[in-house]
Specification:
heterotrimer; A mainly alpha (242); B mainly alpha (232); C alpha/beta (232); A: 242 residues; mainly alpha; 10 helices; B: 232 residues; 7 helices; 79% helix; globular
């Protein structure tokens, strides 16, 4: 085996250019997460199977007969997403922590928030993919039409809020001794507004309620998303640096 | 070993005095309420502890921001003190609320916005301490604590408004929230005296406990330092 | 190239580095030796901008840490004892990812160049988790020089490598260090340090307790120098 001292191209061409790097770094992180996940599919299959199991448990735990189904569908769906979501968040951060890759990301001459946004987008992507599969399964199992654009909008907004806060908290919990177990404990109390509003709005769409009633929770979701993405963006440095 | 400052010793005594006075005012001086009877007297303490718990909550969020800006560990000590005191007072508030609810609405728990938010805030506090438990490095512990307290501090009020806006239908309780607002009882002058004094008394008690807790925190740090010196 | 003045690093109440002074000229290869727990990794992490000094100044390539950290990072390459590579990506995907993170223009050619240099061209499309430790370490070095840094930091690079892999690493290190780059390498292994370094510094009990150039060491040998420095 030969190590060649190859003639390197002019040095300037290879130099790192720190400015204007933000979007490139964000998309690099997103692409990296998606690519790695499509290969191993560990995270994705775990989340999906877990979701289906939760729906199964709900079937036996709650009386999902035709009458009550109407009122609990939104709740069952969002409970499922909330629990399965923690798996994805945990795993996504654990990958970075375990092989020291977080250091690799921090060594790059780019703003720390680029790492945050990259992670949020890829976590969101995983969550949305799982949700896209759970919806038709639920529809089939319980003969409910879940394919309404309003509902899909709520799921998108709710997932954004969940993932925005979840990514930040996962970045913290993965650095503690208690790791995985800690994330749900940190996340759930803080993400209750999302659950409340999302269930209310989802229910509204499913039962055909007044638009005025649905608008309020949707506004809350949007407000929550904006506030917490802004806050997380500002404090993320403190969570990853030493 | 710094001795307890005189001001703090005086405050300790003052706190006990105001607590006893407030108890007298609430239990003896104030008139019995027409509809609910004597159990209404809990209200004075309930509001007192709720107010102090809220004060601690707001202070904790403010300390978060200050710590994140200055990175001075003393703000972290302040924050831990504020959250601990607030945690205890929210617990008392919830228990008192429960005791009040039983005879009045025939239920131990009402899912009204304030009580529910108090319970959720308790869980946030517990999570806060569990987070800190799992970290050895004091700087990281302070940073993570501050970040989480900030997130929690923003989320809890939003939760409160969300519950108020959305949870309109609930089978158990019809009017769970602020009785003053709904006028389920109006206060006489005497009651007002007891009420405002309770607020004052509990504020004094809060400051006393808060100050004591901060002092305890710095004593703990001193002990850690001494331990380290000895072990070297 | 690297200037460190009175660097102190505390973790809470423990002081790991107690006023380190350290200077490296461009092109030097410094082997930083010392017993386990001396603070070598802590020191290197501060140089790598992954950790902040409690007190003191650090200057690398004319930029100050921590304020001008981004500029420093652009000129710094780091090889740790952890691979810093993604197991589920191929060798070339890993390099491409880092090339994008470092914002290297037109990186395809550069990626091929690096793979060639570390002898992994043939396995560029294989997943990194199928690589042996030695191969991962070589790829990690490739990753570290992708953006053509002026300074390279190695933290115990020989950890966990067998004889063959160590020899290969020697070769790669020689190539990488030869282009006038400044290198700082920590090691508790004196053997490898001996061949490559131009200067040997000993970090012990939180400060640099001794320093000798390669010329000075011709008279004694490295082991004696090391033992003397630790005893003193």
């Amino acid at each position: 085996m030969v190590i060649k001292a190859t003639k390197m191209k002019p040095i300037i061409a290879n130099r790192s250019q720190p400015s204007g790097n933000f979007t490139e770094a964000v998309s690099a992180v997103v692409w990296k997460d998606l690519r790695a996940e499509f290969r191993s599919r560990e995270l994705f299959s775990a989340m999906l199977v877990f979701s289906l199991l939760i729906i199964l448990i709900f079937n036996f735990a709650l009386e999902l007969d035709i009458k009550t189904r109407q009122s609990v569908t939104a709740g069952v769906l969002w409970s499922t997403f909330a629990f399965a979501g923690t798996l994805g968040l945990n795993r996504s951060m654990a990958i970075e922590k375990d092989r020291g890759c977080l250091d690799g990301l921090l060594l790059a001459p780019v703003d720390r928030s680029a790492i945050y946004f990259g992670k949020v987008i890829s976590n969101l992507a995983f969550m949305l993919i799982v949700e896209t599969i759970v919806l038709p399964v639920y529809s089939v199992l319980y003969n409910v039409n879940l394919f309404q654009p309003g509902l899909l909008l709520v799921i998108l907004l709710g997932s954004i809020g969940y993932v925005a806060v979840g990514t930040l908290l996962a970045a913290m919990s993965v650095q503690t001794r208690t790791r995985d177990i800690l994330l749900p404990i940190l996340l759930f109390p803080v993400v209750i507004p999302v659950l409340l509003a999302a269930v209310k709005a989802s229910s509204g769409f499913l039962t055909g309620a007044d638009f005025a009633d649905i608008l309020l929770p949707i506004n809350l979701l949007i407000a929550y998303d904006i506030i917490f993405i802004a806050v997380a963006f500002m404090v993320f440095d403190n969570v990853v640096e030493e | 070993m710094q001795p307890k400052p005189l001001a703090l010793k005086i405050l300790d005594i003052v706190s006990i005095i105001v607590l006893v006075t407030s108890a007298y005012l609430a239990l003896v001086f104030a008139p019995t309420e027409l509809v609910m009877g004597d159990v209404q007297r809990i209200f004075y303490f309930h509001i007192g502890t709720a107010w102090t718990a809220l004060l601690g909550f707001i202070l904790a969020a403010v300390f978060s921001v200050i710590y994140l800006i200055t990175k001075d560990l003393k703000w972290d000590r302040f924050q831990v003190a504020a959250i601990e005191v607030s945690l205890v007072f929210f617990l008392i508030t919830i228990v008192l609320g429960s005791i009040w609810a039983r005879p009045v609405w025939n239920t131990w728990w009402t899912w009204d916005p304030r009580l529910t938010t108090a319970a959720i805030t308790e869980l946030i506090y517990v999570a806060y301490f569990m987070l800190r438990q799992g970290i050895d490095d004091p700087d990281r512990r302070a940073r993570f604590g501050a970040v989480y307290a900030l997130i929690g501090g923003l989320s809890a009020p939003i939760t409160f408004f969300a519950i108020r806006l959305f949870r309109t239908i609930h089978p158990v309780v019809i009017s769970g929230s602020n009785p003053e607002a709904e006028g389920s009882f109006s206060m006489t002058a005497d009651m007002r005296v007891a009420f405002f004094f309770a607020l004052f008394a509990f504020t004094v008690i809060f400051i006393d406990l808060f100050w004591n807790r901060i002092r305890l925190g710095s004593l703990q740090d001193t002990v850690e330092q001494l331990k380290l010196k000895v072990s070297m | 190239m690297i200037t460190v003045k009175k660097l102190v690093k505390r973790f809470g109440l423990k002081t790991i580095l107690r006023g380190v002074d350290f200077e490296v000229q461009p092109g030097e290869f410094v082997a930083l030796l010392g017993p386990n727990g001396a603070g070598k990794t802590t020191f290197l992490r501060i140089l790598a901008s992954l950790s902040r000094p409690s007190v003191g100044e650090v200057n690398i390539a004319g930029y100050k840490l921590p304020h001008e950290a981004a500029q420093v990072r652009a000129r710094l390459g780091v090889v740790s004892h952890l691979p810093l590579l993604y197991g589920d990506l191929t060798a070339e995907e890993n390099l491409r990812f880092y090339a994008r993170m470092y914002n290297i223009p037109k990186y395809e050619l550069r990626v091929t160049e690096i793979l060639d240099m570390v002898g992994l061209e043939a396995r560029r499309r294989d997943l990194v988790r199928t690589f042996s430790r030695g191969m991962q370490q070589r790829l990690a070095i490739g990753r570290a020089v992708l953006h053509d840094p002026d300074v390279i930091l190695f933290d115990e690079p020989y950890t966990g490598l067998d004889q063959d892999a160590s020899s290969m690493l020697d070769e790669v290190l020689k190539t990488v260090a030869s282009k006038g780059r400044t290198v700082v390498m920590t090691s508790h292994d004196l053997v490898h340090a001996e061949d490559l370094a131009t200067r040997f510094d000993i970090l012990s009990r939180g400060i640099i307790s001794a320093s000798a150039s390669r010329k000075e060491l011709r008279r004694t040998n490295l082991l004696t120098f090391y033992r003397q420095a630790l005893a003193g």
